Amino acid sequence: MATTTTTPTTTTTERPTAWQQTACILCSINCGIEVRLDGTRFARVRGDKAHPTSQGYTCEKALRLDHYQNSRDRLTSPLRRRADGTYEEVDWDTAITEIAARFAKIRDTYGGEKIFYYGGGGQGTHLGGGFGGATRGVLGSRYSSNALAQEKTGEFWVDGQLFGRPRCHTTGDFEHTEVAVFVGKNPWQSHGFPRARTTLKEIARDPERALVVIDPRRTESADLADYHLQVRPGTDAFALAAALAVLAEEDLLDHAWLDEHARRLDELLALLGGVDITDYCDRAGVDEELVRTVARRIARAASVSIFEDLGIQQAPHSTLNSWLEKLIYLLTGNFGIEGGMNIHTRMASLGGGGVGGTNRVTPVGGHRIITGLIPAAVIPDEILTDHPDRFRAMLIESSNPVHSLPDSQRMRDALDALELVVVIDVAFTETARHADYVLPASSQFEKWEATFFTLEFPENAFHLRKPLLPPLEGTRPEPEIHRRLVRALGGYTDDDLLPLHEAALRGRAAYAEAFLAFLGDRPDLARVVPLVLVETLGPTLVEELGPGSETVAAVWGLCQTAFLSYPSSIRRAGYEDAEALFEAVTTTHSGIVFSVDPYDETIARMETPDKLVNLVVDELVDEFQALASERPPSPAGDDAYPFVLSAGERRSSTANTIYRDPSWMKNDTEGSLRMHPKDAASVGVDDGGTVRLTTRRGSVVAVVEVSDTLLPGHVSLPNGRGLDYPDESGERERKGAPPNELTSTDDRDWLAGTPWHKHVRARIEAVA
Ligand SMILES: Nc1nc2c(c(=O)[nH]1)N[C@H]1C(S)=C(S)[C@@H](COP(=O)(O)OP(=O)(O)OC[C@H]3O[C@@H](n4cnc5c(=O)[nH]c(N)nc54)[C@H](O)[C@@H]3O)O[C@H]1N2
Ligand SMILES: Nc1nc2c(c(=O)[nH]1)N[C@H]1C(S)=C(S)[C@@H](COP(=O)(O)OP(=O)(O)OC[C@H]3O[C@@H](n4cnc5c(=O)[nH]c(N)nc54)[C@H](O)[C@@H]3O)O[C@H]1N2
Ligand code: SF4
Ligand SMILES: [Mo]
Known about the structure:
Strand order of the largest sheet: 5-4-17-16-15-6-7
CATH architecture of the largest domain: 3-Layer(aba) Sandwich
CATH topology of the largest domain: Rossmann fold
Strand content: 15-25%
CATH class of the largest domain: Alpha Beta
Radius of gyration: 25 Å
Number of helices: 27
Helix content: 25-40%
Number of strands: 30
Distance between the termini: 32 Å
Bound molecules: ligand MGD, iron/sulfur cluster, molybdenum atom
């Protein structure tokens, strides 16, 4: 294979030295940062005190962003795969023309719905992700997925059951809550809410407040906790059910709140009455008295916020766990109150831009599609088959599914079985190496970007970020890539745009009016609206905002829709109309608070017909009742694979696959396998020794870190490792173990299809 590594060269001549505002791109918090450049190098990075939520806070990872911006794996030319599997550089016109023709042929031969779209959001890119829908629309592509479908879809589905619609997504208020509970979440390392470490320390220090952590590992967060429920891996459903049963048995419920805001309490109490608390605690490996103490502490608190994350979402009973977790705060009346859980506003949807109704299933396996996303674990099943409805082509954007989906080998096989694979990425990734064409995107610091993880309450923030640098030569921002693809596919014509071009010349008020009319008149162009905005309103923004700002026109569109959805919330933030919001968004480079809510807004925002919380999720009742006879939790213990491996732990040395260059890490460069001293002794390995780790799907070698933070029998590998990266001479070297060489697409939640990455059966042998 040809290596395509080029050391990026600068396209600027001047050397900007002023601090420029932008955001860290490494996790969903997107802390505001300021960067001082030296040429194209990130010479200095610091927290931006003016950012509304991060307020100057960053973690250590943001300081290394130069490893992303100036990675040796940056792509600088479109690549086309040769028959022998190597790649050749082609120019943009050739790439766009050929890709459009080949997608069109697949659409015309098999139907556009056979073109599957993956990615387009998450840590890869935010604003750019909004444009993939246009290309999909023109191609008639109906199915998509992204990383949320291997973590959050089960939780979204439960939100839908409890509150009416999956978009009724709740958020905690850890800054103000009395009791903070983390279930399968290690916020010290993974963050997940603003200024996480500061807030954790504040709670830990305050005797009036309490920190509860439910995790089989004594994590950095657990070390700070008042109560650590060190459950056995995969047994949270028992621990959560026991805690709920204690609330019921000791009558610690908030009856006044439940009478007013919930229905089917009696049915739920009947279910909880069937829980043998002592037995369930025993099976989860937690002390019953401690569970009772935690339940009582939660019940008497003025406010409780809970964060569930991968430790329960990527483990057995994933979706059931989400239901039980939410019942803890609902039974204690911590919904729609200060310091509790609330339904937030949003600037843009993070789902799959769902096409079609709510009861959709996948074309081959009939798997449930949640928020428009196909369960990530079933993707190879939808390809590696002779079923006539199988996917034939994939467009993959800002994600690395060969590395991040369960069973990397099956994912590679699936990509190789497709007739066309196109990857849009900044880097030559594990996934790009299986593409027919690779299109080089400009980095998130070379284009206008936005923070679409707008998940705060009562004050929600939005940050539109200016580029720090012009696009690296040879790269294009995603909106431009999609504009060219859609044009090449004949998605719209200049004539279609004429009325809007004319209106744009008459100012934004005239444009707004014409745009509304356009939406009504041209439903056929609904999916390409972001591009229509860029084409017609875009050019008028360039004078104000500078080169490349055409794409900000899409943000103007978002301001319009956000204002229609949340007029009072936006007015309370001080913006009288969508235009005022847009003005603030484009002129405040550190981000703004765009919505402010009173707490009862949460109740109003529910979408159940009676505005009551539905406490009983019918489809999960059988699984709940079956807990009583389940032992041990599935996947069943297996003597051939005696260990439970958590494949993908967040550490200070991990950042998904955004940093490819291993030299960004200060420690743990090998990505150690953590294991308990007893296990190390039984395997016959010392700290720093090497082991072979084998699962039903694969085998990797790892360096051991002996650690008593884990329970015996539980071992853990970091996420995002095992990337290969070229050294100065272009020789590729792989550091650490890629976790998904070990995982299986079969080990997944029956309902949401979320993979059990945190619960992989493994065998371990010492390597001499
Ligand atoms: N440093 C860093 N931060 C990140 C990222 C990163 O790559 N690096 N990635 C970001 C992303 S994309 C995400 S989704 C978040 C994820 O953030 P987290 O969910 O916090 O991350 P993990 O460390 O994968 O898993 C959390 C915890 O689950 C525990 N766990 C394992 N098995 C079980 C179990 O059976 N029950 C329970 N209760 N817990 C269990 C693990 O011990 C671990 O402490 O992090 C984000 N932040
Ligand atoms: N075994 C195991 N597997 C896991 C997990 C685990 O804990 N264990 N965690 C899962 C989770 S929670 C997540 S979120 C996923 C994450 O996995 P993915 O969603 O596949 O992606 P990331 O690793 O976040 O990498 C983002 C990609 O975007 C590219 N990129 C960066 N900037 C840009 C840009 O501006 N434009 C474009 N087009 N591309 C860009 C990067 O080069 C990279 O290829 O992994 C999942 N996989
Ligand atoms: S990785 Fe750290 S600095 Fe970057 S957004 Fe997340 S918490 Fe903030
Ligand atoms: Mo994630």
